[in-house]
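Why should sequence recovery work at all? Because a backbone constrains its sequence more than one might expect. Tight turns favour small or flexible residues, buried strands favour hydrophobic ones, and helices have their own preferences. The token representation captures these environments compactly. In the example below, the structure is given first.
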């Protein structure tokens, strides 16, 4: 049977919808790049990504992403609420180096098992809260985590 122009148009539309519904980038974001701790630090950039400080600043503010202001104060004057649960992050890059900051953002529990700070790039296999929405994937992607770390490095 020969396909009609109408059939081809329908198949074309279905194919287009399928590619919109499952962009390949969302698959890439699911990938967990494993990291290892050396001297209370993670030496290698997560996934080998290079961070961007301007993007990192936005992720830090974004309540669906980092939401760091819920617990920390930061030099971000346009935001009115700054939390006090965690230590202020002004000057963090003078206290810690980039590799030490990387571990603290990825998984602060490795420094203090009792911390309430969520691990933003924690190994999902270590996540035992199965009802957690984030089960199976880190809170931030490797790229986003590197963006946040690069932003924190500007806070001298
Ligand atoms: C639910 C509260 C909470 C959130 C949200 C949170 N933190 Fe934290 N953070 C803490 C607490 C509390 C500590 C203190 C250390 C501890 O508990 O072990 C901490 C410690 C840190 C440290 C180490 C500071 C130091 O002086 O050693 C860094 C860096 C840090 N947080 C960055 C971030 C960033 C970046 C975000 C957002 C992506 C964030 N935190 C989100 C609670 C939080």
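From this structural description, the recovered sequence reads:
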């Amino acid at each position: 049977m020969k396909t009609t122009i109408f059939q081809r148009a329908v198949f074309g539309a279905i194919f287009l919808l399928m590619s919109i519904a499952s962009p390949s980038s969302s698959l890439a974001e699911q990938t967990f790049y494993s990291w290892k701790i050396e001297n209370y630090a993670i030496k290698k950039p997560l996934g080998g990504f290079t961070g961007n400080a301007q993007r990192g600043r936005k992720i830090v503010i974004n309540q669906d992403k980092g939401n760091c202001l819920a617990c920390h104060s930061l030099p971000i004057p346009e935001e009115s609420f700054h939390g006090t649960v965690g230590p202020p992050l002004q000057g963090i890059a003078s206290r810690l180096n980039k590799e030490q900051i990387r571990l603290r953002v990825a998984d602060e529990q490795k420094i203090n098992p009792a911390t309430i700070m969520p691990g933003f790039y924690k190994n999902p296999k270590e996540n035992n809260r199965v009802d957690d929405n984030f089960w199976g994937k880190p809170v931030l992607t490797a790229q986003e985590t590197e963006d946040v770390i690069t932003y924190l490095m500007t806070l001298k």
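A few observations help interpret the result. The CA atoms of residues 109 and 115 lie 6 Å apart.
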